[in-house]
Amino acid sequence: MLTLYDHPRSGNCYKVRLFLALIGKEYQSRFVDVLARKNQTAAFEQVSAFQQVPALTDGGTAIWDSHAILLHLAHHYAPEWLAPLPRIGAMHAWLSVSANEIANSLQPLRLTRVVGNAEAAHHLGVSEALLDIPGMQARTDRVLRRLDKRLADNKWLAGTDAPTVADIACYGYLALAEEAAIDIAAYPAIAAWRDRIPQLPGYVPPGP
Q1: What is the pLDDT of residues 107-130, one digit of tens each?
Q2: CA angle centred on 111, ends 194 and 133, rounded to 5°
Q3: Which of 48, 71, 111, 150 has its CA 20 to 30 A from that of 127?
């Protein structure tokens, strides 16, 4: 049985929950109260090297990082979610966008609004005085414009006929864009893509 170490408000955890639902894979969930620092234990470090959620155990294997988990699940249980060889580079590139550009713009911007600046600063590992919210907003707009341009010419991010794990990776926080006070209507191709994903069989919405 798969075990997912989870927090209901985490966009990274939502990516994994969504993908597990889309591939119809059963799992048990273990709530990790990161706001109460319940992740900061030696026991949890054995599962997640950086004491972060999500983490997944699959038999005797522990996997941490949402993108590593998505790839593990796809390789082992749902290879149809991997891009064919000619497009696999594009799939990995957009996984990287989720792990880098989105993770350094929309993700922290949402965090400041959901848990407040002090808690956001703690999770980002900086002092509250160093939070650059206007910079986050500018980076978010720049990233979303790039994504919108890509999706204006491609139904799915990897340029494939069907979604891949790259779409799920990027969707995790784009599904929560309104929580960062982002008007997604300003990015019509992203809005259309966001409307396509809930039509996939097995889809589950974000939230507790």
Answers
A1: 999 999 988 888 888 878 888 888
A2: 100
A3: 48
